[in-house]
């Protein structure tokens, strides 16, 4: 990832839902134009909460754009904020973060390669000048194809939730995209790639990390998790997803790990009664994880 950022192949920015993504540099402009409208529409409310006027916000964008444009390379986040402070713009209460986001959402900035642990920003136009410029219909098809490759099988409403686009726009994208197919599923009409249909079946049981796409990439409906278990995966609905265990395409347990000196300790908490077969499969998945981290496994089931 660091190499791809340094080579300007990818940038960090917020193309959809106000969520930070790594995306190809040449696609950043049109993706922001296509999907960033809803996030920008909500910016006024956030500015009001931060006591930021529209004039100050756009003045900050000009200051930040000038700061990164004059630099010969990436500009550290703290130097971007210093430029704003030097211009008399107060940065307390997350104002600085919002203004960096706002300038990026407008396509003036993008996240560049990290400098150690420090975040940097670049001028999107000068850092990655070779932008693709698809028509709106072409852009919808490109997004649909990319989403299906990464998440299929998916429905129109899955794509609508993921991208923030309207249902009609998602339908246009899915029906015009190249390299994807529609199939009938229990959830209704869905789209997949031909490769996915021909790929060998994977093991039905997996230990997944928190924030895995299995949970975040689809609506929180009964296809993946019993609604009564959602609060265990996201306690207090605070947006922090715990690591999950899936078996047969469903979330059936939570898991946690510790790495003492020489072993890996995995504790599994079942969300409902599990038969012996499910427990054995989960044990096998834990053994696979232990082999991956090259440590002997110590496993226990929480009472």
Whole-number mean pLDDT = 91
Overall helicity: 40-55%
Task: Output the helix-strand order.
Answer: HEEHHHHEHHEEHHHHEEHEHHEEEHE
Query: Sheet with the most strands?
Result: 5 strands, mixed
* Biggest sheet, spatial arrangement of strands: 8-9-10-11-12
Tell me the fraction of residues in β-strands, as a range: 15-25%
Q: Compute the number of helices.
A: 15
User: Quick one: CATH superfamily of the largest domain?
Assistant: Winged helix-like DNA-binding domain superfamily/Winged helix DNA-binding domain
CATH architectural grouping of the largest domain: Orthogonal Bundle
- pLDDT below 50 for ≥5 consecutive residues: which ranges? none
Q: What is the global morphology?
A: globular
Compute the number of strand runs. Answer: 12
Question: End-to-end span in angstroms?
Answer: 40 Å
Examine the coordinates and then state which fold CATH places here, giving the name of the CATH topology of the largest domain.
Arc Repressor Mutant, subunit A
What is Rg? 22 Å
Number of domains: 3
Structural class: alpha+beta
CATH class categorisation of the largest domain: Mainly Alpha
Quick summary of this structure?
This protein has helices at residues 2-6, 28-35, 37-41, 43-49, 54-70, 77-86, 95-105, 124-127, 136-151, 156-163, 167-176, 194-198, 213-216, 230-233, 276-292; strands at residues 10-16, 19-24, 75-76, 109-111, 120-123, 180-185, 188-193, 205-208, 244-247, 250-258, 264-270, 297-301. With 303 residues, the chain is α+β, with helices and mostly antiparallel strands.
Give the tags.
Arc Repressor Mutant, subunit A, 303 residues, alpha+beta, 21% strand, 12 strands, three-stranded antiparallel β-sheet, single chain, 43% helix
